[in-house]
Write a structure and sequence with these properties.
Layout lengths: L5 E2 L2 E5 L9 H12 L1 H8 L1 E4 L3 E4 L4 H12 L2 E5 L6 H14 L5 E6 L2 H16 L9 E4 L3 E4 L4 E6 L12 E5 L6 H16 L5 E6 L6 H10 L6 E4 L10 H10 L2 H7 L14 H4 L9 E3 L2 E3 L9 E6 L9 E7 L5 E9 L7 H11 L4 E4 L5 H11 L6 E5 L5 E5 L7 E3 L5 H16 L3 E2 L3 H7 L2 E4 L2 E4 L6 H12 L3 H7 L3 H16 L3 E4 L5 H4 L3 E2 L5 E6 L6
Parallel strand pairs: 5-11, 5-12, 6-9, 6-10, 10-11, 15-18, 17-22
Antiparallel strand pairs: 1-2, 3-4, 7-8, 8-9, 13-14, 14-17, 15-16, 16-17, 19-20, 19-21, 23-24, 25-27, 26-27
């Protein structure tokens, strides 16, 4: 602090306990600013323009609507395209909030700590360009936080469960929330949200460009369907001055169509080059499970005389990957995902009990476990310790690779569960794609849809995109491999390949124009090429349309 009245000798910052000489004009202006955030922002906030340098913040219409929504509502969620001034708009409102409210705490959180600090840096720049009579004296000012004379504070950090743990915040601003890994986003809300909801005027502001069907997608869809308290704000790229069809064509030419759809059209298409086509992902919709407890989501309760299969993928319980399983109704086509379990902390010693309990409820479901790593331990615990009977096994059959079976008799190379080899994964991926895109496997589970939206080409195979998971998708892929096996066809009396082939043939035939031959009675010279049957009758070929029938 300096005796000059400036904080750390910065002439743009007022130190604490410095008196200002107020005039009637400044009192009137201060009152206008305090009552109306739009007036304050448009008259006193300055921003950096790439072309013009430091300029007043002239807001677009959609930015004015954003500020009004933030000011009047506790929970807001914004879906905006790239480079639309979304962060600048929020910065301006947060600056208004800490200046005209005493002893409030604000957290600026982004997918990376560096991004959050950059946002705080822009807020500090706007603060330094305020007239001194609008400023509060500065008590603390650094790259990660600031504290003002009126007791208000701002913190900048990465979005994580520990970022704001133990603190109480009046506003939490989550920037580019769609780019926060799903497991971190879930942990953040489970640990932080209770402290937010405890207040009566606390606010949560979420702003992002979409990136797959993750937690941001879920919050957005719930908001648009009024299943939560968030007020949705959507901005189209055409609302931003200067963005025309010519600009769109140029942007696509310099990037790609898929990238433009995600970053500017704001579609929840997931990653590029996904196993499931973007057109199909766009139409998948999730539903809230009828029961949910400790990682288990139930979408359909067990039904008498229905057959079920439980397919499990096992992790080490180290909070990186998930131990997961899908329960699928295999009674008839289309197959349906009726339940899902997913937990990244359950230990392999406890996972068999969870599988046993759920499989038993679902009519002694057939159980298939992936045994590449420690899944073998889980499979043996189920078979020998818990004495679960409906375990599926596989065995090696030379060039045929692994084949599906049941029981433990026979070949010495048989094993409980299935090992995910390159051949198994290749067949499973191909069949999973067919099942999902032809609506032969129905799922309304949010986590499974989320994983499908980020399951992409990786070398010569497929894997989860960076920072994403594919445990549930792998359960679906192993199930899809099962449906190609002779044992499965005998088990369910469903030949999936034959069924899909027949349906495809029927569809192809219905799409073709029917044709036939008609006897028109014309002389030979008038009918051109003709057909003559064994009785000497002349026939003229003619294509018939559906209007003729």
């Amino acid at each position: 602090m300096s005796t000059s009245g400036h904080y750390l000798n910065n002439p743009n910052l007022k130190s604490a306990n410095v008196q200002e000489n107020w005039t009637s004009e400044t009192v009137e202006e201060y009152t206008k600013c305090m009552k109306d955030p739009l007036y304050f922002i448009e008259h006193y906030i300055k921003i950096i323009s790439l072309d013009e340098g430091l300029i007043p913040f002239g807001m677009y219409k959609f930015q004015r609507n954003m500020v009004k929504t933030f000011h009047k509502n506790r929970f807001s969620i914004c879906k905006l395209p790239r480079q639309s001034g979304k962060s600048t708009t929020i910065i301006a409102y947060l600056l208004y909030y800490v200046l005209f409210n005493s002893t409030v705490n604000v957290a600026i959180l982004a997918n990376k700590a560096a991004t959050a600090r950059d946002i705080l840096g822009r807020l500090q720049l706007a603060y330094e360009n305020l007239p001194k009579w609008l400023q509060q004296g500065v008590l603390q000012w650094n790259k990660g936080s600031l504290e003002l004379e009126n007791g208000s504070k701002i913190l900048a950090a990465s979005t994580s469960a520990s970022a704001v743990r133990g603190g109480s915040y009046n506003i939490i601003f989550l920037d580019e929330f769609a780019y926060v890994p799903s497991n971190i986003a879930e942990q953040f809300f489970s640990s932080v949200y209770p402290t937010i909801s405890a207040g009566k005027s606390t606010k949560v502001i979420i702003v992002s460009t979409p990136r797959g069907m993750n937690m941001f997608y879920k919050l957005w869809v719930d908001a648009t369907n009024k299943r939560n308290s968030y007020i949705p704000i959507e901005v189209h790229w055409k609302e931003i001055p200067g963005r025309t069809e010519k600009w769109k064509r140029e942007t696509i030419r310099n990037t790609s169509e898929a990238q433009f759809q995600t970053e500017f059209e704001c579609e929840f298409l997931g990653s590029v080059n996904t196993l499931i086509s973007p057109s199909k992902l766009r139409h998948l919709a999730y539903k809230t499970p009828i029961k949910s407890n400790s990682g288990l989501d139930v979408h359909v309760m067990p039904e008498k005389e229905h057959n079920y299969m439980l397919v499990a993928d096992v992790s080490r319980g180290l909070a990186n990957d998930y131990s997961a399983f899908l329960v699928i109704d295999i009674t008839e086509l289309p197959y349906k995902v009726v339940a899902k379990y997913r937990d990244n902390e359950i230990k392999p010693l406890l996972f068999p009990n969870k599988i046993y309990d759920v499989a038993k409820v679902y009519n002694q479901a057939f159980v298939l476990i992936e045994v590449n790593d420690i899944g073998d331990q889980v499979a043996h615990t189920l078979q020998f310790d818990l004495e679960y009977d409906n375990m599926l096994m596989s065995m090696m059959r030379g060039r045929a690779g692994q084949i599906l079976g049941s029981g433990l008799g026979g070949a010495g190379r048989s094993q409980l569960g299935v090992r995910t080899t390159k051949a198994v994964k290749r067949i499973g991926c191909s069949n999973f794609k067919t099942l999902i895109e032809s609506d032969k496997l129905i799922t309304q589970d949010y986590d499974l849809i989320n994983e499908m939206s980020t399951f992409i080409i990786h070398g010569s195979s497929y894997a989860a995109d960076d920072g994403c998971n594919d445990d549930l998708v792998m359960c679906g892929i192993l199930f899809s491999w099962c449906t190609t096996q002779q044992f499965y066809k005998e088990l369910t009396d469903i030949d999936l390949r034959k069924r899909i082939s027949l349906e495809s043939a029927d569809q192809l035939e219905s799409d073709m124009l029917p044709f036939g031959f008609v006897q028109d009675g014309l002389p030979e010279d008038d009918i051109g090429e003709e057909l003559v049957d064994n009785y000497g009758t002349r026939w003229s070929p003619v294509v018939r349309t559906t209007d003729d029938f």
